Amino acid sequence: MGKDKGFILKYLFFIFIIYISLFAKLLDYDIKPKGFTSKTINILDVKEFKASKKDGLKVTEISDLTYIDRVLYGVSDQGFLYLFNLKKKNKKIKKLVLKKAFALKTKKGKRFKHKKRDAEGLEHIGKNLLISFERVPRIAKFSLNGRKIKDMKIDKKLLDINSYRSPNKALESLAYSKKYGIITAPELPLRGTDICEHTLFSQKKGRFEFNACGSITALEFIDKDNIMVLLRDYSYVTGRLVITLLSMDLNSAKSKILLKMDSKKGWNIDNFEGLTKISNNLYLIVSDDNDSIFQKTLFVLFELI
Hints:
By secondary structure, this protein is mainly beta. The protein contains one helix and 23 strands.
């Protein structure tokens, strides 16, 4: 009888492990160091999201977010589009359910070839999506189920992969407004420019330069003329990771740091790459797990004070 019980317990444990690997989980998580206070940003909630597959597609490497009509969309480096049901209560993430997953497809309904799948930036324009890419740099409009509608017009220099420091340092981010049109930026400054001299390229208003060290991983409008920039600075030598949120006034081209999260100062952070506005002063950022068992997909809800 004892052996039978042991076998049953082992069997149930095995089934449980399979279950949690296949179905999504949302776990509480804390990234803040002890005693953290800020006059600019209030971190409201952090959740670790775990999921294996959805609709036959792997759930991994979420590189950006956008929020439309109570639906949260995420895009993956592997060329996948995810649809989440996000519910908030008392400025907390009450529920985050992955409802659907699509592979990004061409106008003809075919999956993009591997080199053209590296989707990085995500934004919405009306009832459609804008997605930016690396390796074959471009920005295209897509339907809400991930089918390409058309390529968007951007600065010709950004279409030349030889302008970038590497094929993996191209169009990581984008934002959109009626006044400025599409705004995007190379992850690192283009060849021939200072490594800390970034440029935002606006479809309607030209270029905006600012000084900051690190890689631009996401952009999001705060209001009509102010844009939020998410930067990542990682040292492969020391393992130090610094994530910076700054705001830039596009009228004056002046920027200011809103928050700096430094792993060497107690921040328990990961590879944050995505950013979206949820409501007036509520924002959500997400980390790209790099398809690694050693990294996490973290959703951080915060507000501007």
